[in-house]
Write a structure and sequence with these properties.
Strand content of chain A: under 5%
Distance between the termini of chain B: 51 Å
Shape of chain B: globular
Number of helices of chain A: 10
Strand order of the largest sheet of chain B: 5-6-7-3-8-9
Strand content of chain B: 15-25%
Oligomer: heterodimer
Structural class of chain A: mainly alpha
Shape of chain A: globular
Helix content of chain A: over 70%
Number of strands of chain B: 9
Order of helices and strands of chain A: HHHHHHHHHH
Radius of gyration of chain B: 19 Å
Radius of gyration of chain A: 18 Å
Largest sheet of chain A: none
Structural class of chain B: alpha/beta
């Protein structure tokens, strides 16, 4: 328990101390929100789908979460390069607890980013249909963040250094984001694309945010939560196993 | 005297390269053991295998009665280590680095706080306890690493070139402290160094490795006797020759650039 706490605390402290990182990782979602939200708003409206900002905000929250979460997970590569990983690896504590502490820490950071995006989106005209469901949405955000932090950890355990990073960025993170239904509705897509979206865990996270914030669903909340839970459990188990295999 | 470390026919290969080649030795309980060798001789690789960071290609290790490959957690509970290369978190303060270590090793809060203060004072960093480690000089970081390594009192303490970059005062201080720990708590000390006079002064047993092979194990006196030399340094050179060895360069600078690029961190 103490191990998990101290590793969590470390992630939080690192996050709070790097203001540039905090601001830097907010810039991209906000740009998407403003440019796409206002840019496509009129077309979306004309197509009879309603208010695009209202539709887009859950997607952008998902975006800030997936990016921050995967990066937090991938930080292990830096810990490895800068030597700190050794300190945790030789410690007489279980690998699962190390993995859990880091993952919960990274996920907490990612959720904070998501909540900041949510608060800012209120300023550009977003309004949740039911404020009572907002805390529930935050919990689902935490679950989504855990999932992607664990994914980041898995990637970091497989990559030795940052050389493969561009590959991961372009072939994993970007597709996960763009094909998740963050930016467009999943209904009425060409079938190949809708199948891909079905295999993208982020689709379920964002669908759940939409249910809780705006009351519209594609898969439905029950399906969303079950899928998120199952995938998170699998990723944490796989991540712990990969982490215990690390050699320096 | 019972053995706390037993190494039998230990080998480690990385692809074609054999870093450690069929090494066997024992370290007695409460012994101060020096593990010497030129750069690239396989010292750090051996330590990594002893401390569960690397799995051997071949051979057996028993540390405090446990096998690092099969019972890593038991082994990890038996030792502490001061690494050769940096292993601090730059974004945390000196105190936080110590605290992190103490919690991971389950040092009770009261003893932890007391020892942290004691040790920070010992390495003359007490007044910098709340500064971020990234603002520290190389020597300060080194001192902090050592203080951290001494925070919990394990059965075996590994020190991989602990005195590199330390001034003679701190070095002297450190060895006295280690001798004291060894005497009062019976902690076995396993260290590497390039300063032969340190090994000669403090170690009760010395092993010399070269090109991954063990070339001699004896006391300093014994080594000098069998080579017919006056000092340990001469004996060492006699065993290992005088060619200069290359150390592999780390891709660290490239990494620093990438990190700055991706996170905006300095």
């Amino acid at each position: 328990m103490k191990t998990i706490y101290i590793l969590w605390l470390r992630q939080i402290k690192r996050y709070l101390r790097s203001k540039s990182r905090m601001i830097g990782s907010l810039a991209q979602p906000l740009l998407f929100l403003v440019a796409l939200g206002y840019g496509f708003g009129p077309i979306f409206q004309k197509a009879g789908e309603g208010d695009y900002v209202q539709f887009l905000v859950p997607g952008i929250i998902g975006m800030s979460i997936i990016f921050t979460a995967i990066f937090s997970g991938i930080e292990i590569i830096w810990d490895r390069q800068f030597g700190f990983l050794k300190e945790t690896l030789v410690a007489p504590v279980s690998r699962v607890n190390i993995m859990l502490g880091r993952t919960i820490g990274g996920a907490t950071v990612a959720v904070s980013q998501g909540i900041i995006v949510f608060l800012i989106s209120l300023l550009v005209g977003f309004h949740p249909v039911n404020w009572l469901l907002v805390p529930v949405a935050f919990l689902v955000m935490l679950l989504t963040a855990l999932l992607f932090t664990a994914l980041g950890t898995m990637i970091a355990c497989i990559l030795d250094d940052m050389q493969g990073f561009q590959l991961i960025m372009n072939f994993l993170i970007m597709p996960l984001f763009f094909l998740s239904g963050a930016l467009f509705p999943l209904s009425g897509l060409p079938s190949a694309m809708s199948i891909v979206a079905r295999f993208d865990p982020l689709s379920y996270g964002i669908d759940a945010f939409r249910v809780l914030f705006t009351g519209t669903a594609h898969f439905g909340l029950a399906v969303d939560i079950s899928v998120l839970f199952a995938v998170t459990a699998i990723f944490i188990a796989l991540g712990s196993w990969l982490f215990s295999r690390i050699e320096i | 005297m019972t053995n706390i470390i037993e190494v039998k026919n230990l080998s480690k290969r990385f692809g074609e390269f054999t870093a450690v080649n069929d090494i066997s030795f024992t370290v007695g309980k409460g012994e101060i053991f020096a593990f010497l060798g030129p750069n690239g001789a396989g010292k750090s690789t051996t330590i990594k295998m002893l401390t569960t960071m690397l799995r051997p290609t071949h051979g057996e290790i028993i540390l405090n009665g446990y096998d690092p490959a099969k019972e890593p957690d038991e082994v990890r509970r038996s030792f502490g280590i001061v690494f050769q290369d940096p292993s601090l978190d730059d974004e945390l303060t000196a105190f936080e680095n110590m605290e992190f270590h103490g919690v991971l090793y389950g040092v009770p809060r009261k003893i932890r706080r007391q020892r942290i203060e004691e040790l920070l004072k010992f390495v003359e960093l007490l007044d910098r306890g709340d500064s971020l480690v990234k603002n520290f000089s190389g020597g300060m970081k080194r001192r902090l690493e050592i203080a951290r390594g001494l925070l919990h009192h394990p059965k075996i303490l590994f020190l991989d070139e602990p005195t590199i970059g330390l001034d003679p005062q701190t070095r002297n201080h450190l060895w006295n402290y280690l001798k004291e720990l060894n005497k009062s708590e019976g902690i076995t000390v396993f260290f590497t160094t390039h300063y032969m006079e340190e090994a000669e002064k403090i170690a009760s047993k010395i092993a010399i490795v070269d090109h991954g092979k063990l070339v001699a194990v004896d006391s300093a006196l014994g080594l000098k006797k069998s080579t017919g030399t006056e000092t340990l340094e001469e004996a060492f050179l006699k065993y290992t020759g005088s060619t200069i060895r290359e150390d592999e360069a780390a891709p660290l600078d490239h990494m620093r650039m990438m990190r700055r690029f991706h996170t905006g961190r300095k």
